[in-house]
Amino acid sequence: MTPSVPALTALASNAAILLALLALSDLLPRRPHRPGRLLTIAVGLVLGGLAVALMASAYAPVPGIIIDSRGVLLSTAGLFFGAIPTVTAMLVASAYRIYAGGAGVWYGVAAILAAGVVGLAWRRVRHDSLARIRGIELFGLGTLVHVGTVAVLLLLQPVAALGGVLVAVLVVMPLATVVVGRLLVRQLRRNEVVRALRESDSRYRALFADNTIAMLLVRPYDGHIVGANAAAARFYGWPTEQLVAMRIEDLAAEPRPEKRTGMAAAGMRDGDPYVGRHRLADGSLREVEITSAPITVGGAQLLYAIVRDVTERVATERELREAQAQSDRLRMDAERSRDELMRAVAQRFEAEEALRGLNAKLEQRVAERTRDLAVARDEAEASNRVKNMFLATMSHELRTPLNSIIGFSDLLLHGLAGPLPGEQRTQIEIINRSGRTLLAVISDLLDVSKIEAGKLVLELQRVSLTQLVEQQWQSAAIQAQARQLDLRPPEGPAGVMVSADPQRLRQVLGNLLSNAIKYTDHGSITGGWRVDGTRATVWIRDTGIGIPGEHRALLFRPFHRVEGARSRTREGTGLGLAICDRLVREMGGEIGYESTPGVGSMFWFSLPLAPAEPVGTPRVTAGTAA
Question: Are strands 486-487 and 524-532 parallel, antiparallel or unpaired?
Answer without folding.
Answer: parallel
